[in-house]
Amino acid sequence: MEKTTARADAWVWAVRLAKSRSLATAACKAGHVRVNGDKAKPATPVRVGDRVVVRGGERERIVVVRKILVKRVGAAVAVEAYEDQSPPPPPKAERPAPIGVRDRGAGRPTKKDRRQIERLRGRG
């Protein structure tokens, strides 16, 4: 017999929207998970047709529940359990190289290096 509801934290973890069950529970407690527009506590029931919004990571995920899962499954099966309505991720802009930052473990800068750093920062 199939379950008709699941805990919000367990479902979010089972469909791989959170890396661990404890992180899913923490996200619910912090108010980063919403079910049908309302903040979800970890034990909030999730049913088929509910709209779940998970904030966290680099973007917001908006999904509609298609299947109830309580055990973690493979990525291919997890994708079938929800309909993803998330906006596309923003394009990765090329980040400019940090100015005057040395590699970790490179030691103290030499006098020549310090002069170059000062010039890059506009002080010399």
What features would you describe in this structure?
The structure is a single chain. With 124 residues, the protein is α+β, with helices and mostly antiparallel strands. It folds into 2 domains: 5-84, RNA-binding S4 domain (Structural Genomics Hypothetical 15.5 Kd Protein In mrcA-pckA Intergenic Region, Chain A); 97-124, no CATH class. The protein is 26% helix and 19% strand. It has 4 helices and 7 strands; from the N terminus they run βααβββββαβα. The chain has helices at 8-14, 21-29, 75-80, 111-120, and strands spanning 5-7, 33-35, 38-39, 45-47, 51-54, 61-65, 82-84. The strands form 2 sheets. It has a 5-stranded antiparallel sheet. Strands 1-4 form a two-stranded antiparallel ribbon. Strand 5 and strand 6 form a beta hairpin. Helix 1 (8-14) packs across helix 2 (21-29). The longest helix has 10 residues, at 111-120. The protein is elongated, with a radius of gyration of 22 Å.
